[in-house]
Design goal:
Length: 491
Amino acid sequence: MKTVIFSLATLLSATIMVAQSNTSSVNQTGEDNTANVTQIGTANFSQTIQEGTANSAEAIQGSNDFNSRNGVVEQTQIGSKNSASAQHEDDENQIFQEQIGDGNSASATQNLALTGSGNAANQLQEGNGNDATISQEGISNSAFQTQIGDANSASTFQQGISNLSEINQEGIFNTASIAQIGDFNSSLQTQFGDANIATAEQWGADNVLVQDQQGGGNSATSIQGSSLFGSVGGTVQQQQVGDENIAFANHEEDNNTVIQVQTGDGNNAGVEQNLRTFGEDNEAQQFQIGDGNVATSIQEGTENLLLQNQRGRGNSATSIQGTFFASRGGIVDQLQSGDDNTAFARHEEDNNIVVQTQLGNRNSVSATQNVLSVGGGNIIQQTQLGDGNIAEGSQESDSGSGSFISENNRIVHFQFGDENLATSSQNGSLNISNIFQSGNMNIAEDIQMGDGNFTFVTQIGDMNNSIILQTGINNSAIVTQVGVGATESSR
């Protein structure tokens, strides 16, 4: 039976410890437990408690190169084959480690490469085969790790000033990782279930991250900033309830916000902001309830806002604001409730708006603005109530007339029924296209090239067909079809 084993170097360090008012307390009960304590510096405190078999604990405060002053290490292990390691330098750093179970591993390292003080690491593990690692460089950083279950893994790295991170995992085979470089970052990762993965990386100042996953096989990834471009004031919140959901968020520059909430199974949400352009104040919110939904958002520019809300199964929503040219002040609002609906929105330039609503199944909407032209102030609003409807809107410049500006155009599509088709294409400025369909299998197509043109199409009934082509300035066409099978063409 082994109780306490000290090497010659440990005994010598203990002598130095006494001379410098260091305090060490080791209490071991069981078999084959090992505890090593080395303290170099002034007024350090170490406490080790081990109950069980073949546990190993090590506490090192300070080194011959850099002392530790007023450092605290407390280690408690109950079970078999647990391993706890703690080490730090500089002033007033604290490490607390507690493990209950078998085969757990906890490690904490603070201020070994950089100077700093006032860091705190707290690790609690209950179960078997869990692994927790903390490494902190800087001043006044705090890291908390709690794992309950089996084979969970937690890793935290913080560098800078006043960073705060917390990992809470309950279940089996969960993995959580946080890396924060900079000042005043805050992050929280919570996972309940099995085989969930949460990954976060934050660069810059005042970033905030919350990741909450409940279920199995979920994955949440957040990246704020990079080694080249920081993220200042960015906020990411990802919440997933269900199984095998995926959430991804990545942005740079100033004051970005991403909120993603998914409830169900097999959903996928992704947001990218300001990765290729400089910008600020972007915001993206994506909500998905159901199974197999996909939401994708890309925002490049300034003060863009996105809202995508999907309920049902197999829905897909895509929003792109700015790519080659930035989008400034753009808004995309897409709502889908039902199954197998598809929504697509893309625009560049200034103050463009897309609002698309689909209630039903197998509906499709598409909107593009200022992708090939300069300008802005364009609006596309499309609403579908029913099944199998298609609506498409496009607003660009009238390059054929030598003008490459598209601005202040408006498209409004309203479809009530099944398998209706409404398409509007406007090239120029100050054009308006309105299509209203109530019934089934109606077709309406508006094409306007020039400035100040106007259309209003009303179809009530089934299988009506309208085609309008207007080229020039200040043209106006009004079409009303009531009944079944009417056909009208205006050129």
